[in-house]
Amino acid sequence: MFLDPAEQAVQPDWKFVAECLIANLRRSVGTDIDNPRFVGLVGELSLASPLFGQVWARHEARGQRGTLMRFNHPQVGEMILNRERLSIGGAEGLMLVVYHPDADSRDAHKLPLLASAGLPATSPRTVPQ
């Protein structure tokens, strides 16, 4: 999300999405800020992504459940999906994230196209590392 320009291109509202993700990361970490894996991740992202460093420095922490997400998919174009974050009982700190279109919307008709194995890609895309 922060290091791959191709991933950013899929998110027309990339800056807004990134700011929400950072605030959610800060909230989910809570007081476990000395965890070496967490420290390494924040350090790497702060050095490689100016936006991450700026937003992280705000110390904003917030939870976000449902919201509209806009995607610019390379195969089917723009899609607007509802994002819901659901807590998982008995699994402290884990969330299930579900993206779904409004019923019978233009976006709902695009999802079966994405599931089609024969849909050709319009541009090559690398797998994020």
Structure description:
The protein is α+β, with helices and mostly antiparallel strands. 40% of the residues lie in helices and 19% in strands. The protein is built from five helices and three strands, in the order ααααβββα. The protein has helices at residues 5-10, 14-29, 36-48, 50-56, 106-115, and strands spanning 67-73, 77-87, 95-100. It has a three-stranded antiparallel sheet. α2 (14-29) crosses α4 and α3 packs across α4. The radius of gyration is 17 Å and the shape is globular.
For this entry, give a set of tags.
alpha+beta, 3-stranded antiparallel β-sheet, 5 helices, single chain, 40% helix, 129 residues
Beta-strand fraction estimate: 15-25%
- SSE class: alpha+beta
| Radius of gyration, whole Å | 17 Å
| Major sheet summary line | 3 strands, antiparallel
Helices and strands, in order, run as HHHHEEEH
Helix content: 40-55%
- For the residues shown, what is the average pLDDT? 80
How many beta-strand segments? 3
Contiguous helical run count: 5
**Which residues sit in consecutive blocks of at least 5 with pLDDT less than 50?**
none
Question: Judging from the principal axes of the Cα atoms, what is the shape?
Answer: globular
Topology record:
Blueprint lengths: L4 H6 L3 H16 L6 H13 L1 H7 L10 E7 L3 E11 L7 E6 L5 H10 L14
Antiparallel strand pairs: 1-2, 2-3
Quick recap:
By secondary structure, this protein is an alpha+beta fold. The chain contains five helices and three strands. The mean pLDDT is 80.
